[in-house]
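Q: Here's a chain of 273 amino acids. Please give me its 3D structure as C-alpha cells.
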Amino acid sequence: MIIACPACATRYAVPDSAIGVEGRTVRCAKCRHSWFQDGPELVQPVAPARAEGTPADSPAEEAQASAPAAMAREAGIPSDTPVEPVAAPDGVADDPPPPVERPPEPEAVAVANSFEEDEAVSPFDREPPFRPRRNWLRWFTWGAGAFAALALAAVVAMSTFGLPSWLPIEKPLFGADPGLKVEFPASEQERRTLPNGAEFFGARVVVRNEARESRNVPPLLIVLRDSRERVVYSWELDPPQSTLAPGEAMTINEAMTDVPKSAVYADIGWAPR
C-alpha cells in the first residue's frame, strides 16, 4: 500500500503487513510528523453463484450474495456483466488463513514508540559513561579563590620577613633616611697600599641632626665600587651614639684593610633594616 504524510505530503510504499489490518501509529522520516495510519481495506470474497431456482438458506446468505452486486454498482460495472466466482483451493476452503509473520519495520516509517523514546531523552542527562557533567564556572570560582588566598599570604609574608634572597628582584642598596644629614667628603677619604701588600681604605664620616627633635642614628653602610660602578665590597658602620639631639653632630673615623684592588669609588648610606 502507499501512504502519504498529512504534514509534508511525502509518500511511502509500505507492505500491507507492516501496517496491519487494525492500523498503527507511524512517523514521517522526513518531517518527523506522527499520525495513525488505517490498515488496508479487505476485499470481500465473491460468493459462488447459486443455481437458478435454489432458494437462499438464510437472510445472512442473501445479504452476502447481494454484496457483490452492490459493489459492482458502486464501481460502475453493468449489472448484467457476468462475474466469475473464485474458487478456494481444495482442503483449505473452511480453514482459517495461516498467521502472517510481520516483516521488520520499513526504514521509511517509524512507530510512535520510537518518537516517544526520542522525546523522553533530556539534553541535561548524564553523558556516557554516566558521569556528571563538569561545572566549569564552579572550577573557575574555586581557582580564583585559591589564587587570591595565596597572593594574600605572599603579601603578608613579604611585609613581615622581607623579600626572599632567591627572588630575581633588585633590592634597594640603602635603607630609609631617618632625617639625619651625612657628610662623606672625598677629600677625607684615603686609599693606599700597605707594605705587606694589603689595600687600605680610610674615611671620616660626619652625621648631623638638623631637625628640632632628637633622632635615632641607625647603622651606616659603606660601599666600594669599581670603574663600572659595580659594588665590589661593603660593610656596616655602627655609630658611637645611638641618638643625636637637635643641632648635634658626631664624627666617625673608619679604616678597613684587604679591600679589593678594583675598588675605585666609595659611597655611604643607611644600612637596610
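Q: Can you summarize the key feature?
A: The chain has a mean pLDDT of 74.
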